[in-house]
């Protein structure tokens, strides 16, 4: 009932919902569960929800009606795809991590404090890690590609293609369409031409998939399930522990589990990606992209091209 009404912080693990305790209690009563709103409040605290105050941080880059319409669309499409057994994935890039003996936020149960470098200089790092997460909403499974260079559209498309090749096509045999929930910016931003071209070439054409992409509105990335259902659990698993090598970082991602059944795979992607590669207009014209009538900037479908 709360699955599509939940947002969260991927770093602290806090969760919240825009439903009031009274509305949740009424919904439960319709299901035959008699409970008061005060009891609902106590139960929400037990499962990790928190009361939050307003923060003046949202910019006026889109109208409220547009945001609401896009959220309704995402919620409806999630239900339709999951009901039919089609794959729904949420994608996002976690913040870059310095690999080495650097302080990691949080605390861990150790006999003694772990000694780390007194400064977080990039020059002191073994390298940099760029975790690109793919969260399978229906299966409650995570797949993380750890890059070593930049968060680029090519890296995002490669990560999705690797997930489909190694997991998706086996878990969803015979599937012809895929719903992708993404933030509005970054390597998979809604304005990014190279991202659309990468999806066309590496997913649609190669595997015969129709990929329906829905972007969350600007300023609404915390509603992305990859944030509060995947990355938040990874952050809690390695809290207070220095990521002194790529193998250590991969180990903490792979051992991330929850009591609700989350399991995570992780692979290292050492390929060097280049930033700012232009996409010629001629190539974009060959992308088989159809924008949806409702919220066309944030919602579109890319179909396989006839070979």
Report on this structure.
The protein has 307 residues and is α/β, with parallel strands linked by helices. It has 2 domains: 1-54, no CATH class; 62-302, 2-Layer Sandwich (Nucleotidyltransferase, domain 5). The chain is built from 8 helices and 11 strands. The strands form 2 sheets. Strands 3, 4, 5, 6, 7, 8, 9, 10 and 11 form a 9-stranded mixed β-sheet that branches. Helix 1 (21-30) crosses helix 2 (37-46) and helix 4 packs parallel to helix 5. The longest helix is centred in the N-terminal third of the chain and has 21 residues, at 64-84. The chain is globular.
* CATH-defined superfamily of the largest domain: Ribonuclease H-like superfamily/Ribonuclease H
CATH architect. name of the largest domain: 2-Layer Sandwich
CATH domain class of the largest domain = Alpha Beta
What's the CATH topology label of the largest domain?
Answer: Nucleotidyltransferase, domain 5
In the residues, how many domains can be counted? 2
What is the helical fraction, as a range of percent?
25-40%
Low-confidence stretches: none
User: Tally of extended strands?
Assistant: 11
Envelope shape:
globular
What's this entry about, in short?
Strands 3, 4, 5, 6, 7, 8, 9, 10 and 11 form a 9-stranded mixed β-sheet that branches. The protein has a two-stranded antiparallel sheet with strand order 1-2. It is built from 8 helices and 11 strands.
Helix/strand layout:
Blueprint lengths: L5 E3 L6 E3 L3 H10 L6 H10 L17 H21 L3 E6 L3 E3 L27 E10 L4 E7 L5 H19 L5 E6 L10 H15 L2 E6 L9 H13 L8 H9 L8 E7 L11 H5 L3 E3 L7 E4 L5
Helix pairs in contact: 1-2, 4-5
């Amino acid at each position: 009932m709360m699955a599509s009404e939940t947002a969260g912080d991927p770093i602290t693990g806090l969760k919240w919902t825009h439903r009031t305790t009274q509305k949740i209690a009424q919904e439960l009563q319709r299901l035959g569960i008699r409970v008061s709103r005060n009891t609902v409040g106590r139960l929400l605290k037990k499962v990790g929800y928190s009361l939050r105050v307003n923060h003046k941080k949202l910019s006026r880059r889109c109208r409220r009606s547009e945001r609401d319409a896009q959220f309704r669309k995402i919620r409806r499409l999630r239900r339709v795809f999951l009901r039919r057994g089609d794959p729904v994935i949420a994608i996002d890039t976690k913040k870059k991590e310095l690999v080495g003996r650097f302080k990691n936020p949080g605390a861990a149960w150790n006999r003694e404090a772990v000694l780390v470098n007194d400064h977080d200089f990039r020059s002191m790092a073994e390298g940099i890690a760029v975790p690109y997460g793919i969260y399978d909403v229906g299966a409650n499974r995570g797949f993380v590609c750890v890059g070593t260079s930049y968060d680029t559209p090519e890296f995002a498309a490669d990560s999705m293609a690797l997930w489909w090749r190694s997991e998706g096509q086996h878990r969803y045999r015979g599937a012809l369409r895929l719903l992708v929930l993404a933030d509005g910016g970054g390597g998979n931003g809604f304005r990014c031409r190279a991202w659309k071209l990468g999806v066309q070439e590496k997913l649609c054409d190669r595997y015969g998939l129709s990929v329906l992409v829905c972007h969350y509105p600007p300023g609404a990335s915390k509603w992305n399930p990859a944030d509060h259902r995947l990355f938040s659990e990874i952050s809690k698993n390695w809290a207070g522990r220095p990521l002194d090598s790529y193998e250590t970082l991969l180990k903490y991602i792979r051992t991330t589990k929850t009591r609700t059944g989350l399991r995570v795979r992780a692979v290292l992607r050492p390929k060097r990606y280049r930033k700012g590669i232009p996409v010629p207009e001629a190539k974009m014209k060959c992308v088989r992209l159809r924008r949806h009538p409702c919220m066309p900037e944030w919602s579109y479908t890319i179909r396989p091209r006839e070979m």
